[in-house]
Amino acid sequence: MAKNKEARVRVILECTSCARKDFNKKSRGISRYITQKNRNNTPSRLELRKFCPYCYKHTIHGEIKK
């Protein structure tokens, strides 16, 4: 029997510029988005430009592990 692996998976995108900031500075938080991707069409990690409310600008949000 074949394994039932679904093609569409839920991924979490996190702001890369907020994650790189020093923790000594006053950080308000880290922007995260939830989206879906097709594992067969996009096997690599997903990166999208999204708005970060903590940086007040559009930044690159990269896929993170759950």
Automatic annotation (TrEMBL):
Keyword line:
Chloroplast, Plastid, Ribonucleoprotein, Ribosomal protein
Q: Which domain of life is it from?
A: Eukaryota
Gene Ontology molecular function: any one: structural constituent of ribosome
Q: Which GO terms describe its biological process?
A: translation
Q: Which Pfam families match?
A: Ribosomal_L33
| GO cellular component terms, semicolon-separated | chloroplast; ribonucleoprotein complex; ribosome
Localization in the cell? Plastid, Chloroplast
Signal peptide region: none
For this chain, the family text in UniProt reads: Belongs to the bacterial ribosomal protein bL33 family.
Spell out the NCBIfam families in the cross-references.
PRK00504.1, PRK00595.1, rpmG_bact
Listed name of the protein: Large ribosomal subunit protein bL33c
The species this protein belongs to is Aristolochia fimbriata
